[in-house]
Design brief:
Structural class: alpha/beta
Distance between the termini: 37 Å
Largest sheet: 6 strands, mixed
Helix content: 25-40%
Amino acid sequence: MTVIEVKNLTKRYGILKAVDGLSLSVAKGEIFGMLGPNGAGKSTTFEIIVGILRRDSGDVKVLGVDPQKQPEAVKSRIGVQLQAAQTFRKLTVRETLKLFAGFYPNPLPVDEIIAQVGLAEKKNSRVETLSGGQMQRLSVAIAMISNGEIIFLDEPTAGLDPQARRDLWGSIIELKNSGKTVFLTTHFMEEAQKLCDRVAIIDYGKIVALETPQELITAHFQEMSLEIVQPELRNETKLRELTSVTEVIELNDHTVLRTPNLTATIQELSALAKALGIKLDDFRIRQANLEDVFLKLTGRRIRQ
């Protein structure tokens, strides 16, 4: 069952086309992610789908309803976390969630959500005293308290430390396990790969690829990556002459060799290093990931 349907969506800001003919659909019960750098059009698309922004053209349906024409019919059935949540700073965390719970017909228990996002120790603290990461968790809690059929999360783990980010991933997976649909945006590759059933890679307002994380990786890479960190081999032209290497990518802090034959590449690389009088002692081997897919499709890393 499709719960979100977007067709040929466009949105302009002056001459800038922030969203450019974008189409997607989301099935009930899946975690769907929009992955891309800041400014790619993720948040604009997100805000149009939840009914905050008006679109210029295209069609949008959420739970069978157009959020631009019937915003209240949509808002009562979804939970939304925005990057800049509007809260009353003098209220406590618990008071804030009680307030938002009152906006929904069947909200979840306040204390349960507070514990789930890791704010139990702060439940009686005023919002104005929270750190940036704690505010981010409160924003996610506001979306979750709705008990909505779809939970929309815009960069839900931005500003969180690695452990808090992983803790929140657990909460997002619990939403799926409870039968919710989750629509999220992120610029964290690992987050998209760990959480999402399907991922849309978005760049300059267009979807450049849409599939499961593993299918995206498999479709674009049948190779391993060998990453060379040693500065002596930076921009070494002879790396491109290695017969077992299909591609050489120079990044800011290391060089990536793509190879279908890792053993042969290591042997060739060792021989080259020896010929150049370099001790080869700083390289790592890894499988391709979504960062590689994004780089291949867009020609740049997601944080560039």
